[in-house]
Design goal:
There is one protein chain. The chain is an alpha/beta fold. Helix content is 37%, strand content 26%. It has helices at residues 11-19, 44-59, 86-96, 131-141, 155-160, 168-172, 176-187, and strands spanning 4-6, 24-26, 66-75, 78-80, 100-111, 114-126, 161-165. The longest helix is centred in the first third of the chain and has 16 residues, at 44-59. It is an enzyme of class 3 (hydrolase). This is dTTP/UTP pyrophosphatase.
Length: 188
């Protein structure tokens, strides 16, 4: 398998690609994560991922397969981003507590003018969490770089998740099996 370019600084995406034994190099260019209000929610992370891929593509001097992704958390039709403070993280997790939300990861694979883009949706249901549990998690794990203020593979996921419907790894930030199939399409 050829080495791909991962257009993401997410340690979780790096870890997932390593687990899948997909060879990659990381190349990141900061991009604006704003999106048009007219987009459907499932297209928001695809739009942001495409912008990440295009920004990296501009920097490449030769043809390489680029993988970019973006993950959003959606509760009751509203996109919940990354928390901006401790108080915001506590508020977000309090809102997710006892509820079912969606985690949507948009993926874009791009080489030259060819592109494969998709969104993968996973439903996640939290148990009712106490304020003490939420504060413990936020204080210890500081989830400020995570959409929805949590990582499923950390303490809160282990003790707080009641049910997952869909790809578990999508919640970590990359639906690896779908990505692998898309990479194979490029190679064939």
């Amino acid at each position: 398998m050829e080495r791909i370019i991962l257009a993401s600084k997410s340690p979780r995406r790096k870890q997932l690609l390593e687990w899948a034994e997909i060879p990659f190099d990381v190349m990141v260019k900061d991009t604006d994560e704003m999106y048009p209000a007219s987009l459907s929610i499932d297209q928001v992370p695809v739009y942001i991922a495409r912008n990440k891929a295009l920004a990296v593509k501009e920097e490449l001097s030769h043809d390489r397969l680029i993988l970019a992704a973006d993950t959003v958390v959606v509760l009751n039709g509203k996109v919940i981003g990354k928390p901006v403070s401790k108080e915001n993280a506590i508020a977000i997790l309090s809102e997710l507590s006892g509820q079912t939300h969606e985690v949507i990861t948009g993926v874009v694979l791009m080489r030259d003018d060819a592109e494969i883009a998709f969104a993968d949706i996973t439903e996640v249901e939290f148990h009712k969490l106490s304020l003490q549990q939420i504060e413990f998690y936020v204080n210890k794990y500081k989830p400020y770089d995570k959409a929805g203020a949590y990582a499923i593979q950390e303490w809160i996921g282990v003790v707080g998740i009641k049910r997952v419907k869909g790809d578990f790894y999508n919640v970590m930030g990359l639906p690896v099996s779908r990505v692998m199939k898309a990479i194979m399409e490029f190679e064939n």
